[in-house]
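for the recovery benchmark. tokens below, seq after
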């Protein structure tokens, strides 16, 4: 059974013409009744709070350089912290999420501290009881369901349904066909829906690590759903951070078939600037900043360059990287 896609509102988030962050995917299982509670505030409000020029997220991708010995090399002038910290700060201050949450796996004795997981943000939401799948019904259901859906491999089906209905009582049956529902019973009680967020702006390996972290917490029963946010595509990521290898993006993740490893209900959001502009401010850790010409000239490798300052650092302009 494919995970149903929830309807995505046709607003500025989809087109990226007036706002920074766009929705890339909305893959949360339709059986999770809290989908609108989580997804709408994230997409329409929290992500939209990241702006640099008016109500837009405009990134200045002007090239800047610095001295490295007797050579001139590119320098990073936009920080990823401006995006990720602004996002988590808004969640905490305006939406009641817990920022930088440390989750301890108390089932692990002795080495629990080594297995603590820090996630960017989390929240617990009230939930009404959903449905449960008792162990005695699990394997008869899997045998029946996978026979009717040969496109879903049995091992993946086992994890999906056991985690959602064998370990939890907060999921409803959603799009599950009527002929399979007799295996399930109404859950009597359920705890709150626990949602964890990972915001990734680093290397592609970091994206996989963040997704694996959410999956680990889900399979350990420590969260019930996840939110993952990263760059929409490699082209926009490399324009924001041109002098690094911050190539983590949904474009790269899709190329590496990342969905094969995802078993938890998850919202996925991709971000990209509304536009790039050479007159926009640059992204500092907590605020934007501009460059100031010091009036000094520095010669590196026989090439004179203007010296500018910004964000408490010195940069060179009109210099070319040495070969």
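predicted aa per position
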């Amino acid at each position: 059974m494919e995970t149903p896609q929830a309807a995505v509102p046709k607003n500025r988030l989809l087109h990226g013409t007036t706002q920074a962050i766009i929705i890339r995917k909305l893959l949360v299982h339709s059986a999770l009744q809290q989908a609108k509670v989580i997804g709408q505030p994230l997409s329409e409000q929290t992500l939209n709070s990241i702006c640099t020029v008016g109500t837009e997220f405009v990134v200045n991708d002007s090239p800047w350089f610095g001295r490295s010995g007797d050579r001139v090399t590119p320098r990073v002038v936009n920080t990823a912290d401006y995006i990720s910290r602004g996002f988590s700060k808004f969640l905490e201050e305006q939406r009641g999420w817990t920022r930088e949450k440390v989750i301890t796996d108390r089932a692990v004795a002795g080495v629990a501290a080594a297995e603590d997981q820090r996630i960017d943000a989390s929240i617990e939401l009230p939930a009404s009881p959903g449905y449960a799948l008792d162990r005695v019904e699990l394997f008869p259901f899997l045998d029946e369901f996978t026979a009717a859906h040969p496109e879903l491999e049995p091992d993946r089906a086992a994890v999906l349904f056991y985690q959602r209905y064998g370990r939890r009582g907060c999921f409803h049956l959603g799009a599950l066909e009527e002929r399979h529902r007799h295996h399930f019973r109404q859950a009597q009680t359920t705890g709150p829906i626990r949602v964890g967020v990972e915001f990734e702006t680093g290397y592609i390996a970091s994206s996989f690590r963040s997704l694996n972290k959410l999956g680990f917490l889900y399979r350990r029963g420590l969260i019930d759903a996840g939110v993952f946010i990263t760059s929409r595509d490699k082209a926009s990521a490399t324009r924001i951070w041109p002098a690094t290898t911050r190539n983590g993006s949904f474009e790269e993740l899709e190329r590496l078939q990342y969905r094969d490893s995802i078993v938890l209900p998850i919202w996925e959001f991709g971000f990209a600037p509304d536009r790039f502009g050479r007159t926009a401010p640059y992204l500092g850790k907590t605020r934007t900043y501009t460059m100031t010409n010091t009036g000094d000239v520095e010669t590196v490798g026989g090439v004179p360059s203007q010296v500018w300052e910004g964000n408490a650092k010195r940069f060179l302009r009109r210099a070319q990287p040495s070969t």
